[in-house]
Design goal:
The structure holds 2 protein chains of 2 kinds. Chain A is α/β, with parallel strands linked by helices. Helices cover about 35% and strands about 10% of the residues of chain A. In chain A, strand 3, helix 3 and strand 4 form a beta-alpha-beta unit. In chain B, strand 13 (about 260-265) and strand 14 (about 265) form a beta hairpin. Chain B is globular and about 60 Å long. The chains are: A alpha/beta, B alpha+beta.
């Protein structure tokens, strides 16, 4: 059962400093590093908000209520799922940070059966785990906003926080990676025969990978409304069916776009 | 007697110009497989690429850049960013015509102020083997007439000033005017607007919607695509006293993108097929009727950079071929 947003006792956000919590679940903590890398900006942000709970960086472990809870990582361990539900219960807004929280991350690539087999392979037959196969945060709770990326983009993070503080609906308009890539006049890796996912992937990353010669892996997630089917067909001709599925699965495995492309996949 | 410059003097002319202004022009990356040419600041004449064909981004990047700040605000002040004077050196005629058409689009019926400010600050020198056409808005046109000579046609006081340079001489006979093969004329087909307008039920649009990745590259690299989005960006993590908190930003957009036509939660063009048809309709129906010119200079950038291998010339040829059937 999904936990619902609290409707009672909603605070007027402007009446005092925004109370913020940052939770991390199963992940690499890279998105939190992006937050820490705001450096002096983080200090300014801390003046304007009240970071009441942040295991990674602060000693405060306030239990809420919060105006905004940021969740990083995919709920996997029992405790992760507890934290996720608790965060929803005590927060006005829940925002996911990064691909793990929004899409389940690379760790969600395995389906339920593959996940159980994997555990046996790594830990042996006798080991029993209470962990669940990794899922996106939105599998357990309602999420208000997603900040995509692996890791997230610093400017987008500052923008989103500003929008929430000023009670402005964050912009959700996204163009594919190709816009940012062409703006930098990069060599087109797709045309050079690489399985680049740029054309169907949400931009916002400033084409950081293709600008350095690495193809797009799709870490910002599929662009909604993009022509994923056409790209899949093209990839299958170039790289074969298995490889294509593997490529599309890396970051998209838990998305509706992927389920439409592979309806039989569980 | 016509004004001309010898090839060996071009390097000196370039040196003089780049001593006074930042000079931008086509350069070649010989190792690249795709994206070989691009416009960049030229530090020396050696880096200048003659006969570049086409660059990744057209010259519009200088007047309507992919991302720009229209003005900054915060702390009770509003300030437009400063503009600098530059020279665009050695564009070919096609790109020159692209600028002429874009100038038209960005001044009729509404003047785009920001574009005009940038435009006035940028001087244009064209080098091509074709004679100048009447669709040019440049300062100086150099026409290559033989191996060593360029005829010079100044078009503005700035161009006149450069042409008074001692490198330019009056020559009686500088060879014969060379001609290139005429460009594929498909975009100038006399009934093209009618044909495209009546083609909505042609099966080609479904076929295109099956192959197009919807990435919008055809718009980003087009010299005449000018759609943009404007967004206020406010960053509270900036220090108000030293740094403005807000920017009104303008950046490229494309009518091909899924959410382009989304207005107050309603998307009036949700189908890719409609968006592709609209792209052609705007270029080959609306623009000829509004400006008297097609929204295309036939440069071929969108063909070169389309990851799905879509070729507008083939599309138009097919529509022309099937004209009678689709009426």
């Amino acid at each position: 059962m999904k936990s619902k947003k609290p409707t009672k006792n909603e605070k007027n956000i402007n009446s005092q400093r925004l109370k913020v919590a940052i939770f991390d679940l199963t992940d690499c903590e890279g998105c939190e590093l992006v937050l820490i890398n705001l450096r002096e900006k983080l200090a300014l942000l801390n003046e304007q908000t009240d970071i009441a709970n942040w295991r990674f960086a602060f000693d405060n472990h306030n239990l809420g209520p919060f105006d905004v809870s940021f969740i990083e990582g995919s709920p996997t361990a029992e405790k992760d799922i507890e934290i996720t539900k608790q965060a929803r219960a005590v927060s006005k807004y829940v925002v996911t940070l990064g691909s793990c929280a929004e899409l389940g991350g690379i760790q969600a690539t395995l389906n339920n059966n593959e996940w159980e087999e994997g555990i046996k392979e790594v830990y042996g037959n006798s080991y029993k785990t209470k962990n669940k196969a990794p899922k996106p945060v939105s599998y357990y709770i309602d999420v208000d906003y997603h900040l995509p990326g692996c890791p997230i983009n610093q400017n987008e993070l500052a923008q989103l926080i500003t929008s929430i503080i000023s009670e402005k609906k964050p912009t959700e308009y996204r163009s594919p990676v190709c816009l940012e890539c062409k703006a930098r006049e990069n060599t087109c890796l797709f045309l050079e025969g690489e399985p680049c996912l740029g054309p169907i992937t949400k931009g916002g990353c400033e084409a950081v990978c293709p600008s350095r010669g690495l193809r797009c892996w799709g870490c910002f997630g599929p662009l909604s409304g993009g022509n994923h089917k056409a790209l899949k067909r093209n990839f299958e001709k170039q790289f074969g069916k298995d490889k294509t599925k593997e490529l599309l699965k890396t970051f998209f495995s838990q998305t509706n776009e992927f389920k439409e492309l592979y309806p039989k996949e569980k | 007697m016509s004004l001309a410059i010898h090839k060996k003097d071009l390097a000196d002319l370039f040196r003089d110009l780049s001593g006074k202004w930042p000079v931008y022009g086509p350069t070649e990356n010989k190792e690249a497989v795709t994206s070989r040419f691009r416009f960049a600041k030229l530090s020396s004449f050696k880096n200048f690429a003659f006969n570049y064909g086409h660059t990744v981004l057209p010259p519009k990047q200088f007047f309507l850049p992919p991302e720009e700040v229209l003005f900054r605000f915060g702390d009770n002040k509003i300030s437009p960013p400063e503009e600098t004077e530059i020279i665009l050196f050695g564009l070919n005629r096609k790109d020159g015509e692209g600028i002429f058409y874009l100038d038209k689009i960005m001044s009729e019926p509404i003047i785009d102020e920001k574009y005009q400010i940038r435009r006035q600050n940028i001087k244009i020198i064209i080098i091509d083997s074709l004679p100048p056409s009447n669709s040019l808005n440049c300062d100086l046109y150099l026409q290559r007439v033989d191996k060593d000579h360029y005829l010079a046609f100044p078009y503005s006081p700035f161009g006149e000033e450069i042409a008074q340079n001692p490198y330019f001489g009056h020559e009686g006979d500088v060879g014969t005017i060379s001609t290139r093969h005429a460009a594929d004329e498909v975009i100038y087909h006399p009934r093209l607007d009618k044909i495209v307008e009546n083609s909505y039920n042609h099966p080609i649009w479904d076929k295109l919607a099956d192959t197009c990745f919807n990435c919008g590259i055809c718009s980003y690299v087009c010299p005449l695509c000018y759609c943009f989005k404007v967004e206020d960006q406010i960053d509270i993590t900036k220090n108000v006293e030293n740094d403005c908190q807000g920017c009104r930003n303008r950046s490229w957009d494309s009518c091909m993108l899924p959410d382009f036509a989304k207005v107050t939660f309603h998307n009036f063009r949700p189908e890719l097929k409609d968006r592709i048809y609209n792209w052609y309709y705007h270029k080959f129906v609306r623009m000829p009727r509004e400006y008297g010119i097609p929204g295309c200079i036939d440069c071929g950038r969108c063909i070169t950079y389309c990851p799905a291998n879509i070729n507008y010339r083939d599309v138009l040829k097919e529509l022309i071929k099937d004209e009678k059937n689709t009426k």
